[in-house]
Amino acid sequence: MLDSLKGKKILILGVANEKSIAWGIADTLHKLGAELAFTYVNAAIEKRLRPLAESIGCQNVLPCDVQSDAELDRLFEELGARWGSLDGVVHSVAFAEREDLQKPFSQTSREGFRVALDVSAYSLVAVAGRAQKMMSAGGSILTLTYLGSQRAVPNYNVMGVAKAALEASVRYLAADLGSQNIRVNAISAGPIKTLAASGIPHFRELLASFAEKSPLRRNVTTEDVANTATYYLSSLSSGVTGEVTYVDCGFSIVGL
Does residue 252 belong to any structural domain of this protein? Predict the structure, then answer.
């Protein structure tokens, strides 16, 4: 049934480089015949993203800062002009100031808290609100989260609060958009060495501990996440919405 992805138009936000989870998902979707569009937030990201997009024959590389309503409006206006309709969205966008990840959570700045919640959680709401207008035949919206939303993970700090807000947003969006046959779900991936993860102090130690304690005794790969993303973006998950699926080698089930 994965041939149901052939010709599907899917927008992907959050590819930073070839090691990004979002790129792993994009590569798999491309191999299954989906037509893709990508966004970038600044010139540095664009410089890394364009060669990746070109490597799969994709010319749909568009600017978008998710903190700007004007840029979000322009993004979906351009997509509407190019595609007319939209079948899926992969939201892999998150950000917190480095200093707010390095100091005690109780010392999080007001501005740092606002930015983390805006970029990492509200952006899903802002994107979904615009994407639904292009999903007249229904669709699937998928976001990426992490266990730090449910447990106090060392050094994850304000990002954990932002991910908790993101997961709550998934449930409310699923309830809101379900009558339009638009499904909204999340994947909670285990730690993967990405550009975003590089901002988390002692991340190498976290990876080693994860592999040691998870039931599958290994770290998660981008391929693991991409496989589950394919399920959510295809008709295989046609009856599933509002869910958070853990792709973490079973780490989330372990008590000690």
Answer: no
The torsion angles phi and psi of 17, rounded to 5 degrees, stand at -165, -170
Asked if 225 and 145 count as a contact pair (C-beta separation under 8 A), the reply is: no
CA-CA-CA-CA dihedral for 32, 34, 39, 45, to nearest 10: 30
What is the separation, in whole angstroms, between the first and last Cα of the chain?
39
Residues of the chain where predicted confidence (pLDDT) is lower than 50 = none
- Known active-site residue 156: yes
Q: Which of 156, 231, 232, 246 is catalytic?
A: 156
Is 232 noted as a catalytic residue in this protein? no
Query: Residue 108 belongs to what domain range?
Result: 2-246
CATH number at residue 201: 3.40.50.720
The 10s digit of each residue's pLDDT in 57-103 is: 999 999 999 999 999 999 999 999 999 999 999 999 999 999 998 89
Distance, CA of 49 to CA of 182 (rounded, Å)? 28
Q: Assign residue 42 a region: left if phi > 0, alpha if psi is -120 to 50, beta otherwise?
A: beta
Give residues with Cβ within 8 angstroms of 212, minimum separation 6. none
User: What is the pTM for the complete model shown?
Assistant: 0.94
Residue 73 inside a domain? The answer is yes
Q: Answer for the pair 247, 228: CB distance below 8 angstroms, yes or no.
A: yes
Catalytic-role residue among 40, 146, 231, 232: 146
